[in-house]
Design goal:
single chain, elongated, protein transport, transport, ARM-type_fold, membrane, Clathrin/coatomer_adapt-like_N
Length: 502
């Protein structure tokens, strides 16, 4: 710990102690294990080459399976196959038993070590241990689920067999539910999407409104990632628009808006349906989303969009700022596409916005007026108004919130907060060429060896004489038993007398 605090960059101090630390790791107390594992993780990233190379699976003696692929295989065989450094393997082998530790911090430390250092086919070893930690306290669950969420983005296959472990329980806290939802969404594929969507249908009915809203976002992500269920998800979200809960309806509108951007031509009916529900929706973000859809696809709903603008002109001053901004945008787009019906409405809304209390709305109104209404001051910009406001816009990509967290080392505070915290030590990239491994060799100095031969020589004659005497006695015993007995009796009496005399 002192090393980590005082001089964490002095990797050269670890060289000679590396093997000793690896071998003693099992016997160290738990919190010492955590510190050593984190230290050795950073060390290994500077001393060994990457085990993730694609040519690591090839062997020099491997032969081409097909003759047509011989040239390609030959090129792969010419490259040197990856051979793991024995010290690298020593670290992985000695940390593996610690996955059975009772201390959750130790298990998490070993899991991050395997994630950052082990070959890809060996990382799945840690899966079962991480799932086991989900039975612990909610604080532990939170940290472990955050790390699993990051892992599951890159390697879905690791946690797919344990998918049921991430089903939400009614007793879970909201932040635990949200993380489990994130992981289930990451694990979704064509094979298991029907099971996951059935699970999501239950979650939408939850009394926890924040969790229900997060579930609707997860359904939207599944719809964009898996094209086979896009229509099914979209129809399910439309049904949620008739839900009694405003939060669910609002979130559904926002997600539907994003999904419609991917294929707007096919779903004019949905846009019309949302326009009918507009009066009953009170959540500002949802109202703003419907107004944006009306403006963006106003040419596909030419009769409905002007009527929506008429309603908004009546309530403009009472609306939230985000709704006012989208109303101004809707007015501008309708002015360009249907000026006969909406010219006066647009001028009225621009006049209301000109004197609004919010300076963003005043600025936007002033900008829109100069852009769409031709005048001497507007200049050449007026010619490009249609291209600016009605340009085709790329559909938003619904991504995981944990997508960029892999830049931090797993299990660290920085990873948990998604911010680089004070004292965070970044993992270095794998070196292209491994440094000299001999720096970890330790010369064993044994000063006792100088005296050992002399002691051996001093003792050797005695032992030889002792055993030779026995052999002589046995030989004599076979020839003359009486002499043996007398000599033995005399020797024994002599020895016994010697003992008493002594």
């Amino acid at each position: 710990m002192a090393f980590e605090e005082v001089c964490p960059d002095r990797i050269d101090l670890i060289h000679r102690n590396y093997r000793k630390l690896c071998n003693l790791l099992v016997d160290v107390e738990e919190w010492g294990q955590v510190v050593i594992i984190n230290m050795l993780t950073r060390y290994a990233r500077t001393q060994f080459t990457s085990p993730w190379k694609e040519d690591g699976i090839f062997d020099e003696n491997e032969k081409a399976f097909y003759d047509s692929d011989s040239e390609e295989k030959q090129g792969q065989r010419e490259a040197k196959p990856y051979i793991m450094d024995p010290d690298h393997r020593l670290l992985l082998r000695n940390t593996k038993p610690l996955l059975q530790s009772r201390n959750t911090a130790v298990v998490m430390a070993v899991a991050q070590l395997y994630w950052h250092l082990a070959p890809k086919h060996e990382v799945s070893i840690v899966t079962k241990s991480l799932v086991r930690l989900l039975r612990s306290h909610r604080e532990v669950q939170y940290v472990v689920l955050q790390n699993i969420a990051t892992m599951s983005i890159q390697r879905k296959g690791m946690f797919e067999p344990y998918m049921k472990s991430f089903y939400v329980r009614s007793t879970d806290a909201t932040h635990i539910k949200t993380l489990k939802l994130e992981i289930l969404t990451n694990l979704a594929n064509e094979a298991n999407i029907s099971t996951i969507l059935r699970e999501f249908q239950t979650y939408v009915k939850s009394q926890d409104k924040a969790f229900a809203a997060a579930t609707i976002q997860a359904i939207g992500r599944c719809a964009t990632n898996i094209s086979e269920v896009t229509d099914t998800c979209l129809n399910g979200l439309v049904l949620l628009l008739s839900n009694r809960d405003e939060t669910v309806v609002a979130e559904s509108v926002v997600v539907i808006k994003k999904l419609l951007q991917t294929q707007p031509t096919q779903h004019c009916d949905i846009i019309k349906h949302m326009a009918k529900l507009f009066d009953n929706i009170t959540v500002p973000m949802a109202r703003a989303s419907i107004l944006w859809l009306m403006g963006e696809y106003c040419e596909r709903v030419p009769k409905i969009a002007p009527d929506v603008l008429r309603k908004m002109a009546k309530t403009f001053t009472a609306e939230e700022d985000i709704v006012k901004l989208q109303t101004v945008n809707l007015a501008a787009k309708l002015y360009l596409t249907n000026s006969k019906q909406t010219k006066l409405l647009t001028q009225y809304i621009l006049n209301l916005g000109k004197y609004d209390q919010n300076y963003d709305i005043r600025d936007r109104t002033r900008f829109i007026r100069q852009l769409i209404v031709p005048s001497e001051k507007s200049g050449a910009l007026n010619k490009y108004a249609r291209r600016i406001l009605l340009a085709s816009k790329p559909a938003p990509v619904l991504e995981s919130a944990f997508k960029d967290r892999d830049r931090f080392q797993l299990g660290t505070l920085s990873h948990s907060l998604n911010i680089k915290t004070t004292g965070y030590q970044e993992l270095s990239d794998w070196p292209a060429v491994a440094p000299d491994p001999s720096v970890r060799n330790v010369e064993v100095i044994e000063p006792v060896q100088e005296w050992a031969p002399s002691l051996g020589k001093a003792k050797k004659p005695k032992s030889d004489k002792f055993y030779s005497d026995d052999e002589e006695k046995e030989e004599e015993g076979s020839g003359s038993g009486s002499e043996d007995s007398s000599s033995s009796s005399s020797s024994s009496s002599g020895s016994s007398e010697g003992m008493f005399v002594f």
